[in-house]
Amino acid sequence: MKHHEITPEQSRELKDKGFLLIPNAIPISLLSKWQDLLTALNENALKSYSKSSQSPNASFIVGPDKPLLSRVNDLLAFYPDAVLDLLASPIMIAIARDICGPDAVPLQCDALFKHNHPESKISWHQDALHPRKFPYLNVGIYLDDAPLGDGCVHYIPKSQHKKQNIGKLVSQYGWNIPDMVKVPVKAGAILIQDMMVIHGSQMKRDPGVRRTIYVEMRPATAVSDHGVQSREWMELRKRWMGIVVRRSSVKWPEDSYTALTKDLKSDSEEIEEILRLREPPIPANYSI
Q1: How many domains, in total, are found in the chain?
Q2: What is the reported pTM?
Q3: Rounded Cα gap, residues 14 and 99, in angstroms
Q4: Are 67 and 49 contacting, i.e. CB atoms less than 8 angstroms apart?
Q5: Does 195 map to a domain?
Q6: Tens digit of pLDDT for each residue in 170-193?
Q7: Taking the mean position of all CA atoms in its chain, how far away is CA 262?
Q8: What is the pLDDT of residue 181?
Q9: 80-87 vs 231-247: helix axis angle to the nearest 10?
């Protein structure tokens, strides 16, 4: 299996700009597997919606013609083995280990479905606002192409260092905030972003759906330091990372917190506990 590491140059680019694109990051077999899984997830969600029995994890755009699945939270509840395989892949382990550090934990794993629909636009915003003492990442795994002119993500480089007055920026500049860059992405690439870099995307215009898996990562120390989520919730994230590391063929630093999770139960038992305790995410900063 291909070895991955985040180079010092990549780390500097992420720290400087607030985002980092890694092309061809996901093996074809894993990419194809997730494309098939999210195709099935979309079909099943629409069937449930038609019977008024949709999952509380799913969100829809309700249009005049038909509903469109827009988001599914907690993919761990739907495809636990596939989520563990994804997080245990060499590139995801490298991102966790080399950027977040030896006590990195996954906080969330969700899927976004972007359609040719006005409501597919995502306004300028910063994700979870937090004290900037530790890295906090949103890792986007692209299952479909996001070309220029078709609603690819827009960034404001270097905007991640503080809470921004996005309402004022939008009022003054709209989509043309100074220094804005558009980042086209190919299927199989990973786009890492600092959780506080300003970003957004305009409407998708071409037919078809664009699917992206988003994984939030952060050091366990940062979760405890911030104090927004409970200690129990954080400990369950450590156990989540414990079963990821157990599955991975990539060596993990021996001095990490994983030494505290040697009492791990089976994957299914651990996942049941992880999904049992739900706590609200840290609020984002939108232009509204």
Answers
A1: 1
A2: 0.95
A3: 9
A4: yes
A5: yes
A6: 999 999 999 999 999 999 999 999
A7: 27
A8: 98
A9: 80
